[in-house]
Each structure stands twice: as structure tokens, then as C-alpha cells.
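Please think about what follows:
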Amino acid sequence: MGNHHKQALNLCIMNKVVVGLSGGVDSSTAAAILHHQGYEVIGLTLWLMKGKGQCCSEGMIDAAYICEQLGIPHHIVDIRDVFTTNIIDYLVAGYSAGITPLPCSQCNKTVKFGPMLQYARENLKCDRIATGHYARIQYDEVSGRYQLLRAIDRNKDQSYFLYDLSQDLLAGSVFPLGELHKSETRRLADEYNLKTADKPESQDLCLVESNGSMRAFLDKYLTPKKGDIVDTSGKILGQHDGVHHYTIGQRKGIGIAAAEPLYVIALDAVNNRVVVGDRTKARAPECTVARVNWVSIAQPATPIRAQVQVRYRSTPVPVTVIPLENSHVRIVFDEPEFSITPGQAAVWYDGEKVLAGGIIEQFSEMTNQG
């Protein structure tokens, strides 16, 4: 391969690497790149749940085929119990409490990277794992920290979902696709004749893929319970069939005819109410973020300026981040931000560098500001 992908393993000091294989084109190509560079590659697939889905039965078959094609060993680790506890139970508890949990960052830390690195160290005598994520890692000599950076391909950048990785996990991880654009990944997969080269993108969460929709998944665990849809003054505008079917910022599917578009602006699980209002009421000047993980920098003692994303696809916006006690911060937006959703992740950056991230706990409404 020459120098084409040398940067992919610029941190790797050992010749052995365990590659997490989901059966998709990205992880397959990551394994092929490392294999063609001469690394001793071991494929590892996590068995997360039963049923169809990118990470399950079909994915495991494709992952096994890729390993056979590359002539590398393939391990399957059954962590369905871990997935149930850390993801399914976490989601169900969150939705029943009226928040909209983000499973992906939680899954990456507690279900994927953590167990994979542990398995690699304990069973395969290897302290390096690689995945098909689009992000980059670099070591900063001055701070002595591993830094998480956006991918070169901003359209595929997945750093938002990786903010919760610890320094130990970053030190043991490699992202061979971080310097590539998706089109290059497809081209390499084709060049290597990988079975997954033309496999379509997975568009949804694995739980959505295997259940058809998030609503269908939740309805297996939460009994629909009718309640009122109200405006900010408490006036009843209609009925809903379960608070867990709604998310803050939602406009479509509310089922109420109005002169202007209505958005979900609050979920009141205690009183089983969905609160709606116009777009201005769906904006907030600040929010509190809990369970903060400082990634590329140590926690600062004083407020810092940064750009924050409050959803995976949201545009980074300028903010002041104010550190608080107990792994909390207060984020003050330069301009009120739309659709701040408790349970989702807020991740703040300095350019392409992930500074930190955490789970949105609550937001201040516009009406509370003087």
C-alpha cells in the first residue's frame, strides 16, 4: 500500500490489532487496510441482540465471510446481557421518564470499545483495537493526553458519538478510516474485492433496524398510555397515546391542526402531558449537561469558549462552557438554540478537536429569562 494509509496506524506500536467487525463496508475495509499493511489482524464481532440488523445475524455472517476472505481469525463474543442492561434498559427507563436518550455514545463506551479492548487484552494478548468509525486520534505531547478529532470527511464524521471514550480507550484505539472520505472507503473495498463493497449504508440505530421503528421497539416495553397534548398555558389541544412516542423539537406527527407549525417543547411524564408551542418556544438560551467526559483537554477551572453540537447533525454553534461540580457544566448559547433535548448528548469542540461532551440534563426556557 506504500504510504497511502500510514497515518491510519501512526499510533500503533504493536504488530497485532483486533478489528471490531459489524459486517458493514466500513469495518470490513478497516480490517482489509490493516491486513494489507502487514498487521496481524484478528476479527472480533460482538453479538448484541437477536434478530435482523447490521450488528446481528446478517452482520455476523458477513463479518465471518470477510475474515475468511482475508485469511484472518474471527471471534464472536456474546455480550447480549451487557447490551440489554446498558442500552435496552437505559433507553426504556429514559423514554418512560420523558427524556430522549442517545444510545450510541453509551453503546460505544460500555458495550463496544470497553468490552472489545478488555477481550483483546485478556484473551488475545493484544492492547490495540480498530474500528470503522470516521474520526481521528492523536497524542498531544504537551498535555500528555490523547485527543479526539473530527474525521477528514465531515459528512461522515462520528466524533460526536465517541466523546465518552476514556483516555485508556483512546490510547488503545485506531481509526483507519479517519483520514479517508467515504468514496475512498468504497473504492478500497472494491479494490480488495470485499463482499461488503456494495452493501448499503445502515441508516438507523440497530434497534430501529431490527424492530422496524423506534415506536415499535418502545411499544414492546412500554404500554401506550393516553394523555393530553397542551399548549404552554395548559389548554388542551388534543390527545396523545404515550409520552414516549414524542421528542422535543418534533414537528411532524403531532396530529394537531393549527394556524402555524407546532413543535413539541416539553414532555411531562409525571402528568402524562405533551406540551407544544411555536418555534420560538422551542429555543433555549442555556442548558445543564451532566456526566461530562473531558476528552482532549483536562477539565478547565474557568469558563471556556467553544462550539457545541446538541444533536449529531446539528450545526456547531458558539457557546460559553461553565464548569460546575460533580461532572456537570452549564452551556450558555450566544443565540438561543433550537430543540435542546434532555437525554441527548451535547459535545463541544475547538475547531476539529473534541474538547468534551455529556448528557443534556435540563434547559432554561426563554420565558425564564429576564
